[in-house]
Amino acid sequence: MDHVFNGTFAASSQNLNWVPEAGDGVFSIFQNAAVKLVDLKTNTTTTLVTMKDVKDENGQYIYWSSWKLSADMKYMLIKADHLKQWRWSSFGNYYVHNLETKTTYPLIPPTNPPVTAYATWSPIGQSIAYVTNNDLYVLPSPTASSSAIRVTTAGNASLFHGVPDWVYEEEVFSNDFALWWSPDSSKVAFLRLDETLVDEYKFPVYNPTDDSSAIFPYTEEIVMKYPKPGYNNPLASIHVFDLATYLEENESNASEFPIENATFELEWEGRHPAENSIIGQIKWLGNDTLILKEVNRAADDGNVVLFNLGNASGVDATTGTVVRKLGKDGEEGDDGWIESDQYIYPLPESLTGGSPAYLDVVPDANGYNHIALFNPADSSTPRFLTSGTWEVTSGIKAVDAERGLVYFQAATPSIERHIYSVSLALDSSFIPAEPTPLTDTSSPSSYSASFSPEAGFYLLSYQGPNVPWQRVIQVDNTGANPIHNKNPQLNETLSRFEAAVVTYTTIESDGYELNVKEIRPPRMDDSGRTKYPVMFFQYGGPGSQKVDVNFNRDWQDYLACGYQYITVIVDGRGTGYKGRKLRNPVRNNLGYWEAQDQINAARIWAGKDYIDPKRIGIWGWSYGGFMSSKVVEADAGIHSLAIAVAPVTSWRLYDSIYTERYMGLPEKNPAGYINASISHVEGFHNVDYLLAHGSGDDNVHYANSAHLLDMLTRAQVRNFRFRMFTDSDHSINLRGANRELYEYMTLFLVEKWGKGGRRRGW
Peptidase S9 prolyl oligopeptidase catalytic domain: from which residue to which, for each copy (predicted)? Predict the structure, then answer.
């Protein structure tokens, strides 16, 4: 167990922080207490700033957690006093550092705790947009004498401008900002989120420190707005602040130009009512052209809306046009859901002759996600650049305007990841060629890539199944590209240890082909003379994947090598990268078909000669904990043990945006919500069950486990263990909790099943 937790088998990797302001192929490193720029074109390294240069007005060093460079490379925006909030969001005290004069001054006077949630430079010029106390400000110039423009004034704990609230951060944007500069820096689009009517969820904090021995006679309390299915969502609206107009009017008028005259809300015909509307991706396609996606709460009807802010005035300028229809009557064309992906990729105007155009990843007629071109931007019909019974993953990696190429990652086949390029094919008469692989597709493997801003270079990361490595590649260099990181120490370490044996296969479940990964003990006897226990490990959430060829050494490997346990991972119905046909069956009925797939797989393994049919179990975390509990509820008589960590037990207790995307609204699907929750606990009498949850879980609330415990109590189920981890969030990490959780689960397995293989008597 020590080796799992101390990083013995962890592969080192480096992310290249590309610095577009310094040119293509330039990235930053932190070395010898300084930020340095590495130029791959010239093979030179220069120092940008040293830690000792950054001091406050009292001469005290400022220790920063992150930085951003102005477009002209004259200033740095530095974030200090980092204070984590939710998964992506945090607060900080921001400072502007002049690289020429080596002077530093605060963006706003520093506070304890900090109150600025986000700050960023304009793409050209030297303006800064930032959000303090949930109000949006714009600083036109980074000089100490410059005054910030307060764009909004109503911000409070329930009214957000330019940053997401909890549910939009978690389920829509997966980041910490909701403001977007136009390419010419003349405008700032921002989201306004009003969660005044969203109900509060409260949970206690027993110990706000990292010291397990600390005692606090009175608990603190976390209060958060957390919308649940059928209850009020935050009301979203999109606004634009016209900075250029505001500055021009103030310069030409003696009296100050009202800020509201330079700020306007965007509307469009066919928009869902605010209480039934979720605004998703927002992108500038040009200086005056904005595009966004909107879906209803049930995620079965949506629009892509285009705004031309420079071609009209008044209402016409702020009223958008629906250019694409999403959902059953639109691009998806089935009974599934509209994904919340952020894949719109604006094309450079140098490619399109100055007219806006963009790429997106959308389902084709067969339900596979592929790259589509929309040129011009008001096109309603996609022109696909890729096709086939495979899927593009994680959006567009880069566009090479010079070569007319689009770079992307694809699941070819579904458990692998490869990097490809494809011709952009802007001419409608041009038929795109087959994608060109940039990685070795001759053997099972997984790659990711990080491209420089103009796609002249990329960091290629090999992720498995063998020891990961990284290589920096120049696309027009036909010579050798040196290995950037070979993980030599890990190779040497692995040579001294026996490794689990990993095999891949597929099974059929009710006519669906499912991917399977089996992790076996080294030197396993598969003749049938030795019977091994098997744990099924799964997550199973919509669009997810656990069966892949990535290098990994975790608890499953520890069980295989230390205890001779077999682990089987099955990606059932609802999971990702095999098309909508496999994903859609779980719509409106989460947990049913996924559990059936796990049970069917367990039956198959129960029939294998080397499996002990009395020692078949299942475990998972979060959605996986929900899944293992649904399998127990099904009471199929196959599993004798189950573990659930931080599970959802009733979808009425989870957040609205995620749940309603797959389940619809409770009022329209009441039976589905009952069936998709843990509603019957008779089956829990028949298994050894372990339940664990962090009391400070802001994502899957502890109330889920409390609800299940009540049902177990009522049914007099007593053959289970429960472990609460004080104040831990969804990751169960606080005050040594993560290691203890895995130790506890291991002891539970050994107590119930003993160590692995048992020889048959002959």
Answer: 555-754
